[in-house]
């Protein structure tokens, strides 16, 4: 085992998009990294897929955008619909920000593909080492480093590191071992995500690649991803009552019933995959405790309406990768890591949490008068150039980055 006094290596726990972007960004700054992933191989999880313009700017600095662009769907617009009436309420076009931002669009690119593209291109060199089937079980801080205990295919082992970064999801082992509270709440309802190859544009022509449907009884999100075929897949996200068990929700008959209610059509839907998941709004009490740092879902989780979770996590990773090398090289004191925690926790609480909670409330509002007012206000916001631009800058997390950077 390497002596902790002699290592500058950083261990990242979790080989998802946040962990892999953080590893790449640290590697580019000359910091050796080892990534531990408890799964035996990259997981093809069907979660986040939208990469916002602010995140694209960061990924472009790492040379990632040019490598993935041809494999993505490009979307400059997103639309809000009134599901009961079928009316289009508002359209926001990122093209209206083309004079302000480098990427006036989002890329629809599933997170497992982003992870795989980084791993294939850069990982498994000695200084960018990704290890699957490696599960963290213990952390012990020393005077000048941190000792990591983990299980691997050959048994229980230990490794010394300068710092450990937890990018291991909402149930983060790193966060739990550090004893950091995860503050917030769990929604009583769950969400169901259904992917189908059926092209919804054949029955509703006013769809964008990203759509939000307001409904007092069953709001919905609908967006398209590339999937594994040129035709792509449409993902539908709907709420599930806490009274409905998973087995019922996942049954073929119930899935078909939901899709037919969403868009009735002749013949059955071809369903590519379906999953049910609980949803939390939580933020870690701190993103730094000694030599342990948190980023992404380990530090904050939220509902998926607006596609902010993965993007906010990548913003964590880039912020941390700018600061940590300075501390390791003793160009700055470790209070710089406290600044990371303050900046990114501010962004998580005041932007990612606040915006995703507001997005859900907008879509699910039941009071007829409040609902009418909200949709009218959204319509007016989209129609006015200045308010539309302000709305899109906030939704794309540019405001969160600006405000976080101002924190000292």
From TrEMBL:
<keyword id="KW-0503">Monooxygenase</keyword>
<dbReference type="InterPro" id="IPR050631">
    <property type="entry name" value="PheA/TfdB_FAD_monoxygenase"/>
</dbReference>
<protein>
    <submittedName>
        <fullName>FAD-dependent monooxygenase</fullName>
    </submittedName>
</protein>
<dbReference type="Pfam" id="PF01494">
    <property type="entry name" value="FAD_binding_3"/>
</dbReference>
<dbReference type="InterPro" id="IPR036188">
    <property type="entry name" value="FAD/NAD-bd_sf"/>
</dbReference>
<feature type="domain" description="FAD-binding">
    <location>
        <begin position="8"/>
        <end position="352"/>
    </location>
</feature>
<dbReference type="GO" id="GO:0004497">
    <property type="term" value="F:monooxygenase activity"/>
</dbReference>
<keyword id="KW-0560">Oxidoreductase</keyword>
<dbReference type="InterPro" id="IPR002938">
    <property type="entry name" value="FAD-bd"/>
</dbReference>
